[in-house]
Specification:
single chain, 229 residues, alpha/beta, 4-stranded parallel beta sheet, 9 helices, globular
Length: 229
């Protein structure tokens, strides 16, 4: 999320960061503002409909439009089936699937009225491949794939692009710092290296890249080869 916010801000976007960890969120947005970029922090609980509604209403009240929604928040619990509790299940499905549903639903009216917009939902290999120790996580990402495919069909008539994106390479994030093995950590890359793909998707409409499962690393490498700065 931090890398995507930085990439969008550097491209001239007005960024609204949403997270329930208020101090970390504000520090990141403050850093962007200190660099002369426009960024705002809105403490948001992605599990609560009213909180998500307030987020979108503030953006609309201040700027009148929402051009891009990037659902980057995600959590994981690594347990086998018999060890996965109902609390584990609700926690992971809540952040990874309920949250994107609420945010997509909240921005849809404004995007439909504008007949433009791009929705980017961060998926994973776990959205297309099952892993024995990621029961709730795989369910959430498979669900996100289904949600995104359905939303893509629902919003296409209004010119709105909807895509899912997988990192495509190990990246160093707060999640991977907890879950990656020592061998995988040797391969991880700075998340900023996959943000060209996020910028590219942000510029799409339903007539461009739409209803796709995008590999961020491969797309970013292709864009760099084509002269992407």
């Amino acid at each position: 999320g931090r890398a995507v916010a930085r990439a969008y801000a550097r491209e001239g976007a007005i960024v609204y960061g949403a997270d329930r960890i208020a101090d970390e969120l504000e520090a990141e947005m403050l850093g962007l503002r200190g660099a002369g970029l426009e960024a705002h922090a809105i403490t948001t609980d992605l599990l609560e409909p009213d909180s998500v509604t307030n987020l979108v209403e503030r953006v609309l009240s201040e700027h009148g439009r929402v051009d891009v929604l990037a659902n980057v928040a995600g959590v994981i619990v690594e347990k086998h089936l018999t060890d996965t509790t109902l609390e584990d299940w609700d926690f992971v499905l809540g952040i990874n699937l309920r949250g994107p549903f609420l945010t997509c639903r909240a921005v849809a009216p404004a995007m439909k009225a504008a007949k433009s917009g791009s929705i980017i939902n961060v998926s994973s290999r776990a959205g297309v491949i099952g892993f024995a120790h990621e029961i709730a996580y795989c369910a959430s990402k498979f669900g996100l794939e289904g949600l995104s495919r359905a939303i893509a069909q629902d919003l296409a008539p209004f010119g709105i692009a909807v895509n899912t994106i997988t990192p495509g390479t190990p990246t160093q994030t707060s999640m991977s710092e907890q879950t990656y093995s020592a061998e995988t950590r040797k391969l991880w890359k700075d998340p900023l290296l996959i943000t060209p793909a996020f910028v590219h998707l942000a510029l799409q409409t339903a007539s461009g890249v739409h209803d796709q499962y995008v590999n961020a690393w491969e797309t970013s490498e292709r864009l760099r080869a084509e002269g992407w700065d």
